[in-house]
Amino acid sequence: MRFRLSGPRLLVLPVLAVAALCMPVVGQAASAAPRHIPWGVYQPGVPAGMAPLSALESKLGANPDYVMWYAHWAGSSSAYRPSDLRAVTSRGETPVITWMSDDPSGASAFPLRQIASGVYDSYVRSWADGLRSVRHRVLLRFDHEMNGGWSQWSAGVAGQTAADFVAAWRHIHAVFAAERATNVAWVWSPNVVYGGSTPLPLLYPGDANVDMVGIDGYNFGPSDPWHTWQSFAQVFTPTIVQVQALTRRPILVTEVASATTGGDKAAWMADMFATLRRTPAITGYIWFNAVAEQDWRIDSSPATTAAFRTGLSS
User: What pLDDT does residue 33 have?
Assistant: First the structure.
């Protein structure tokens, strides 16, 4: 599980927030006809144990298309575990692995230049060979939110640059290609843009190395001086505009959730579903269903559970 920090890293610049209010939703369809929008969830404890996910599915009356979890390159989650993949694929759900080249304890680091030079190729191959054996589509999110400044792989940390990130990404992609792990879909996943974030074009590895673009964004509400209550469109539209200027790869919202304080979370959810229905540029979404710096859970109240269930059924 990744650690999220509050602060300016998730701030959308005021001018962008205003632009999101004024501009039409990107890719807005002529009508809001219902369509199935693939959805997923990050649920703590899953996939090591599937009971928490089954409980959530019972409340919502629906099974997710995607199940996401986090794996660090060091620590207890570093080794490839086939049982994790089987737990998800046996249910007909698609694994989404957020694969992070870091040590959550901070005891060691995996410099991007060393990754690009092949120092960790034996470890990378162990994952490539393991995922290839699954014979099921797997979404792999390597070093997400790379445009922020809070991760061991971020540009500016320990002298690393955006070019170092691109080189590391391309090298790992090449190792997977050499191992013929063709069932792996590569998800390049920045955080929503904010003042001071690394420009997305500097970090993009190119369409030859990316299958999907994931975007992470949250409605933090007025939790600190840098955040206000924002609609789903206000959170994501400025970044979608920038992504669509960069690539036409499909867009998946890879982390989304709303705070419970500062506004009506159930109404926020209803608006999210309405926005998704009229935004074909977004091909799916994954809800971060955990208590972290906020209570992000779908079932944080009976009203939010009902709103999400209604959104799925519509």
Answer: 53
